[in-house]
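ok so I'm stuck.
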Amino acid sequence: QVQLVESGGGLVQPGGSLRLSCAATGFDFSLYEMKWYRQRPGKERELVARIKSGGGIRAYVPSVKGRFTIDRDDAKKTVSLQMDRLNTEDTAVYYCNANRYQEPIGDVDYWGQGTQVTVSS
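replied:
not stuck anymore, here's the structure
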């Protein structure tokens, strides 16, 4: 059974840090690109960070570049998002996503249930 389970969300003050984790089961984790999305109140879901299969290539949305770090551990089947210098605009539900393009199906996507991050004083 495919599962992505996020953890690590919570309430933090502006300028603080949080580390999100996502544990994967039920699929060949190492073959998938892993992504973190977020959905802020009243906004559409947006891609925040991604890390390619193999871990060599990372990318970030400009608003978090230099503050967030995505990493993966294929042996443990986990992906993490270290979030530093948080601000109120980072308040959102954060979702873990696994993505792979498979012929002839096309894109295969798995999603976690989301974890709430609230940045407030």
